[in-house]
């Protein structure tokens, strides 16, 4: 993908070059929509977000608890909870996932004696971190495959040079939030072990992988030596991430976190919001995944019924509660149709569209969360018909 991670994470909220009012229009349309498949926290006004966090905080922290200082207090509570949920010995809070992942990979490079990381070319460090693995951490990357999926066991075995760490992004977001089968996941981990490599999982969105794998979080995380998880991508937290794994490696990671400038004086707002996400959003994710599959099927049916010359929902059966939609129109045409539908009917079906792949094709990411659970398949098909009515014929 050619756009930056902030744009892909929250496509409704990034101003396009030369369009100073485009963000304001998108946010206004999202706030004003009576019906949407997902309501981003970024669309909530600042004061309302502050008030909601303060009102909910007593659900996860004591009213008289002290604020954290350099990672104690509520931050330590969050770390313990993440380690428990993932079945790991320890976890460390990081202000960003980018930092957590770089630290994990450089720690493993030191322990394995090999600074080469095998990963997918669409993985987050290759696409969204401005070459940080090599520029900042002195690491080198190789690619077992460039197919739009995770590598297979044979591709890992046949990689013609040694590597110290195999990094797997679960799900692989820029390929369409795709996951391997459980058997494929087990096999690729075993192939890495045969190569004397450790396995690190980019689990920014690991929380919603349990329905696809049919396994618990500890079982999934248990196949990897270390796992990074995000608190804002799926759990609706303010920010932050955690690195979980062996206690000795996590302690080493804390040292590198300080060196990278990630030992912040106070982080309690992010930690509280993360605990609230674990308490309230995490249990809802399987329902979101199940309904995303209903929505995806209805979208396909809707585009077919509306006579769109070509469309694709990818994956056909979503692996998580997020997936891609592809249409043969320019992004500005699709953006205008999306915004016009929201402004005129109060229904926001799609977020921002991007040019990608062959000329003339555009892609958007669909996320189904609490708001989307109220949509029936018929509601989705009707919304598609209204959306297509705004496209050129």
From TrEMBL:
Pfam families attached to this UniProt entry: Beta_elim_lyase
Residue ranges annotated for the Aromatic amino acid beta-eliminating lyase/threonine aldolase domain, each copy included: 69-301
The annotated regions of Basic and acidic residues compositional bias extend over 1-13
Q: Which cofactor does it need?
A: pyridoxal 5'-phosphate
InterPro entries xrefs: ArAA_b-elim_lyase/Thr_aldolase (IPR001597), PyrdxlP-dep_Trfase (IPR015424), PyrdxlP-dep_Trfase_major (IPR015421), PyrdxlP-dep_Trfase_small (IPR015422)
Keyword line: Lyase, Pyridoxal phosphate
For region Disordered, the annotated ranges are: 1-23
Which GO terms of the molecular function aspect are on file? lyase activity
Family recorded in the similarity comment: Belongs to the threonine aldolase family.
This chain's protein is named Beta-eliminating lyase-related protein
